[in-house]
């Protein structure tokens, strides 16, 4: 198998002249030594691709090695695409490629280890009781994540759709700086194209309706997923809430009526104990709901999302609050619960149910995927 990497072409011109992260080819022997022969005790988690192992290189640096579970032509192609995309991206809020290994039927992708695991672990998993995410950290995470995704959409060449924005794919370094990760489902968008039609992959609860129903993947689909993530981070709630054996409610369906009634304090994560900046909380929730609009043409771009989250334009913030979406407490076209239920059985590669449970159940499960 031949890999063609374009490490310079995908960089934003503004990044030229800056120190760029480096990657290299690892030998299988080197990764065996680093992970203690892929010892079970070194295992961080597992997902559809395979297992992820913690390791330590000869120079003392810590890594996460993502190892292909079963080799096949299809898996080999997905591996190649992910490595190719990782080799292109250059941003402080995108998980950098440390290297890869392709020997025989072994396929591994190597990253820097993220000691604070993922956003999911702090919202719903093993670290949720520790309340390490104060409001300041949450704002830094949402702005950093937004800037990373905006880079993919607007500054990489060609543009990249992530297709799996969710809490477990936002990793946190030692300083809680967000690193958007897992480009296994990512798609390169040809110049001039508005979308690509593809098989639906992703995680239920974060999928834009037009993508879930029609397979039309676009930058706007990532915006939708990011909107759900914003609501999740502000409220501490999961994307889909089970109300009864037969009834489910999406986080946007729960949040929108409260936002229309300006009851933002009821939307705040109880774990914050009221310690948050009111204007920022309001901003995050309103932006999240607009991003998660059921109509893609109504969603902002990620560049606009970054600007709104930073509060850089008072005029745009005023327009945001006056958006028609917030004039009616229960607009019919914004309710996605039924649509999500309808398409839930059609997503064959869906990772949510069993794997999200794994992520919550034990230390580090799927955190480095």
From TrEMBL:
<dbReference type="GO" id="GO:0005524">
    <property type="term" value="F:ATP binding"/>
</dbReference>
<keyword id="KW-0547">Nucleotide-binding</keyword>
<keyword id="KW-0808">Transferase</keyword>
<dbReference type="Pfam" id="PF07714">
    <property type="entry name" value="PK_Tyr_Ser-Thr"/>
</dbReference>
<comment type="similarity">
    <text>Belongs to the protein kinase superfamily.</text>
</comment>
<dbReference type="InterPro" id="IPR001245">
    <property type="entry name" value="Ser-Thr/Tyr_kinase_cat_dom"/>
</dbReference>
<feature type="region of interest" description="Disordered">
    <location>
        <begin position="320"/>
        <end position="369"/>
    </location>
</feature>
<keyword id="KW-0723">Serine/threonine-protein kinase</keyword>
<dbReference type="InterPro" id="IPR011009">
    <property type="entry name" value="Kinase-like_dom_sf"/>
</dbReference>
<feature type="domain" description="Protein kinase">
    <location>
        <begin position="38"/>
        <end position="317"/>
    </location>
</feature>
<dbReference type="InterPro" id="IPR000719">
    <property type="entry name" value="Prot_kinase_dom"/>
</dbReference>
<feature type="compositionally biased region" description="Basic and acidic residues">
    <location>
        <begin position="348"/>
        <end position="361"/>
    </location>
</feature>
<keyword id="KW-0067">ATP-binding</keyword>
<keyword id="KW-0418">Kinase</keyword>
<dbReference type="InterPro" id="IPR017441">
    <property type="entry name" value="Protein_kinase_ATP_BS"/>
</dbReference>
<dbReference type="InterPro" id="IPR008271">
    <property type="entry name" value="Ser/Thr_kinase_AS"/>
</dbReference>
<dbReference type="GO" id="GO:0004674">
    <property type="term" value="F:protein serine/threonine kinase activity"/>
</dbReference>
<feature type="binding site">
    <location>
        <position position="66"/>
    </location>
    <ligand>
        <name>ATP</name>
    </ligand>
</feature>
<protein>
    <submittedName>
        <fullName>PTI1-like tyrosine-protein kinase</fullName>
    </submittedName>
</protein>
């Amino acid at each position: 198998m031949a890999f063609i990497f374009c490490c310079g072409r995908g960089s934003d011109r503004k990044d030229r002249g800056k120190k760029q992260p480096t990657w290299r080819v690892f030998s299988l022997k080197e990764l065996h030594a680093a992970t203690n022969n892929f010892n079970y005790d070194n295992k961080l988690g597992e997902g559809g691709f395979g297992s992820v192992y913690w390791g330590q290189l000869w120079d003392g640096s810590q890594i996460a090695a993502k190892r292909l579970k079963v080799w096949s032509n299809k898996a080999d192609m997905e591996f190649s695409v992910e490595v190719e995309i990782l080799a292109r991206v250059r941003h402080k809020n995108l998980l950098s490629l440390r290297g890869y290994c392709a020997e025989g039927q072994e396929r591994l992708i190597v990253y820097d280890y993220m000691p604070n695991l993922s956003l999911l672990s702090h919202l719903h998993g093993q670290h949720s009781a520790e309340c390490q995410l104060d409001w300041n950290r949450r704002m830094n995470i949402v702005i950093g994540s937004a800037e990373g995704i905006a880079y993919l959409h607007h500054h990489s060449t060609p543009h990249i759709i992530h297709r799996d924005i969710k809490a477990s794919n936002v990793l946190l370094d030692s300083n809680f700086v967000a690193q958007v990760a897992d480009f296994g489902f990512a798609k390169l968008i040809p110049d001039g194209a508005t979308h690509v039609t593809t098989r639906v992959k992703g995680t239920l609860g974060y999928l834009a309706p037009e993508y879930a129903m029609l397979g039309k993947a676009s930058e706007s689909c990532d915006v939708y997923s990011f909107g759900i993530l914003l609501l999740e981070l502000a409220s501490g709630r999961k994307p889909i809430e089970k109300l009864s054996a037969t009834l489910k409610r999406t986080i946007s369906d729960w949040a929108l009526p409260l936002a229309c009634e300006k009851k933002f304090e009821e939307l705040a994560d109880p774990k914050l104990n009221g310690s948050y900046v009111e204007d920022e909380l309001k901003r995050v929730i309103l932006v999240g709901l607009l991003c998660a609009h059921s109509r893609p043409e109504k969603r902002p771009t990620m560049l606009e999302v970054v600007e709104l989250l930073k509060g850089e334009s008072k005029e745009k913030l005023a327009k945001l609050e006056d958006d028609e979406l917030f004039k009616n407490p229960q607009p019919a076209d914004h309710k996605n619960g039924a649509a999500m239920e309808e398409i839930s059985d059609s997503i064959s590669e869906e990772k949510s149910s069993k794997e999200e449970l794994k992520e919550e159940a034990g230390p580090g499960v799927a955190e480095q995927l």
